Amino acid sequence: MSSAPDSDGPGQDRSTLRFYAETAETYTAGGPGGASRGLASFLEKLRPGARILELGCGGGRDAEAMLAAGFDVEPTDGTPEIARQAEARLGRKVRVMRFGELEALAAYDAVWANASLLHVPRESLPEVLGRVFRALKPGGLHFASYKGGGREGRDGHGRYFNYLSRDELIEAYDRSASWEVDSVVEYVGGGYEGTQGPWVAITVRRPE
């Protein structure tokens, strides 16, 4: 299998989508318990009841935590099979939406994208981030985390990753829109394969 993305529209890779469709039940049942790293500090920056769009909600654990904290959350995922797993957990509808289908304008106080935009092919990432920017209200906040490494390619399951370095990540955001950068954090973390590796997380804001 080629390491290059196999495009299925802006920001999509067919092989990656197929992996999640075929493993939806086992994928969403695995992984760490509790909310994702950085979610609590992200929510502290938002007003009570803020409207949050989640891109790539997976099994719904972060959406569950945000709803429990009183936020107005719209969880989405690009894979119908994954969305159904999240619906079962959350007891509510989960919208099936791929990143390139985001058309909202100034609709959200925040966009949370934990370990999801890391599947966007490099050449498409600025376009997708531009969509996120436009979906935010002025002053809105966006968080995303990416596997690091300064290269692109596939993991042992055939999933495409953009594997951005810190500088490449900042450049992608700079190319997409006039973001205000709140923080960029590098750390070591795990993944579905059970191995540890570099990650980089970014929090940015659409200017007022």
Structural commentary:
The chain has 208 residues and is α/β, with parallel strands linked by helices. The protein has one domain (14-30, 44-205): Rossmann fold (3-Layer(aba) Sandwich), CATH 3.40.50.150. The protein is 30% helix and 26% strand. It has seven helices and nine strands, in the order αααβαβαββαβββαββ. The chain has helices spanning 14-22, 24-29, 39-44, 61-68, 80-90, 125-135, 166-176, and strands spanning 51-55, 72-77, 95-96, 108-113, 136-147, 153-154, 160-161, 180-189, 197-205. The strands form two sheets. Strands 3-2-1-4-5-9-8 form a seven-stranded mixed sheet, with helices on both faces. The protein has a two-stranded antiparallel ribbon with strand order 6-7. Helix 6 links the parallel strand 4 and strand 5. Helix 6 (125-135) crosses helix 7 (166-176). The longest helix has 11 residues, at 80-90. The chain starts with 13 loop residues before the first helix and ends with a strand. The model has no long low-confidence stretch (mean pLDDT 92).
Summarize the amount of helix as a percent range: 25-40%
Number of domains: 1
Report the count of strand segments.
Answer: 9
Ends apart, CA distance between termini: 45 Å
Which structural category do the helix and sheet elements fall into? Answer: alpha/beta
Q: Provide mean pLDDT, rounded.
A: 92
Order of helices and strands: HHHEHEHEEHEEEHEE
Largest sheet strand order: 3-2-1-4-5-9-8
Described by the principal axes of the CA atoms, the overall outline is globular
> Uncertain segments of ≥5 residues (pLDDT<50)?
none
Our count of helices gives 7
CATH class: Alpha Beta
